[in-house]
Amino acid sequence: MDLVSVWEATANPSKPRSSLEGDHYCDVVVIGAGFTGLSTAYHLQKNNTRTIVLEQSKVGAGGSGRNGGQILTGYLHSMSALVKQKGLDAARQMLQMSLDSIALIESITQENGISCSFQRKGHLAAAYKPSHLEELKKEQQALQRDFNYSVKIVEKRDLPNELKTDFYFGGSIDETSASFHPMNYALGLAEAVENQGGTIFERSPARSIERDAQNRVVVKTEHGRVIANELVIATNAYSGNLHPLISKTIIPVESIMIATEQLPEKLAQSLIPQDRSVYDTKYMLYYFRRTPDNRIAFGGSGRTTGKRDARELFLNLRAGMVKVFPELEKARIEYSWSGKVGFTRERLPYIGKLKDGTHFAYGYAGHGAAMSTLMGKLLAANIRREQRGEGRQNPLEINELRPIPFYSQSSKVVGLMKYYYKFLDYIS
Question: For the whole prediction, is pTM greater than 0.90?
Answer without folding.
Answer: yes
